[in-house]
Amino acid sequence: MSRIEVKICGLSTAETLAAAMRRGASHVGFVHFPHSPRHVDLEKLAGLAKHAPSHVGRVAVLVDPNDALIDALIAPGILTALQLHGKETPVRIAEIAARTGLEIWRAVSVKHAGDIAGASAYDGAAHRILFDAKTPEGAALPGGMGLRFDWALLRGYRGATPWGVSGGLDADNVAQAIAETGAPMVDVSSGVERAPGVKDVDKIAAFCKAVATS
Predict the structure, then answer these.
(1) Residue 55 forms beta bridges with which residues?
(2) Per-residue pLDDT tens for 110-127?
(3) Which of these, 14, 1, 75, lies nearest to 48 by C-alpha position?
(4) How many helices and strands, by DSSP H and E, does the chain display?
């Protein structure tokens, strides 16, 4: 069985970034969205990302970024992917991919089976689909709220685009999520925190161990 990839997202300190890499995370994520408790400015984002080795993916998480922000983010030449959580269309995603030369990940909010089926709209535009729990109407955040969706909706899923599962994962339930969905990648943020935006090195270790032994 192939090794399941792990992305630890919403990192904001050198200590927790080091913990994620030490425990074998395949990707590390940094949120640039002022409404999020995990928000880091461009200077801090670049400063953290440069400490990740070349074999670890470095992902910036954004919501409807404009071209100026995208250009500023990619200027240091450190990132490997942009993860989009807004209303970006397949056309816009293709534009960003062409502009940056980076992998573009599209977060797809899930509540019903139709949301899973709708992900096919991004085939050929996004490089990866990340299935996340749909947040309540009017919520300030598009993700990172510790919510989960019905993993059974992904049972037997065979999408044309590489994909992963996010939303409400933690060390106690990630093995179940993998077993139910067959996900080749899992993405965690609030599930390895001791407070909103504050990562916990022990929880990061426990999550990565749970994935490795699942």
Answers:
(1) none
(2) 999 999 999 999 999 999
(3) 14
(4) 7, 10
Tell me, letter by letter, the H, E, C secondary structure of 15-80.
Answer: HHHHHHHHCCCCEEEEECCCCCCCECCHHHHHHHHCCCCCCCEEEEEECCCCHHHHHHHHCCCCCC
pLDDT digits (tens, 9 = 90+) for 21-58: 999 999 999 999 999 999 999 999 999 999 999 999 99
Name all domains of the chain by residue range, CATH numbers in brackets: 5-212 (3.20.20.70)
126/161 Cα distance (integer angstroms): 8
Which is the catalytic residue, given 132, 170, 187, 208?
A: 132
| Residue 132 falls in the annotated catalytic set | yes
> Using N-to-C axis directions, what is the helix angle for 201-212 and 174-181, rounded to 10°?
30
Nearest C-alpha neighbor of 108 from the set 129, 126, 82, 135? 129
Q: Are 93 and 126 in contact (CB under 8 A)?
A: yes
Rounded CA-CA distance 199/130 in Å is: 21
Copy the structure tokens of residue 126: 């996004």
Mean pLDDT of the chain: 93
Contacts of 185 (CB under 8 A, 6+ apart): 4, 5, 6, 7, 26, 128, 130, 162, 163, 164, 165
The one-letter amino acid code at 163 reads W
Please check whether residue 107 is in contact with residue 83, taking contact to mean a CB–CB distance below 8 angstroms. yes
User: In which band, very low, low, confident or very high, does the pLDDT at 141 lie, cut at 50, 70 and 90?
Assistant: low
- Active site includes 64? no
Task: In whole angstroms, give the CA distance from residue 39 to residue 31.
Answer: 5
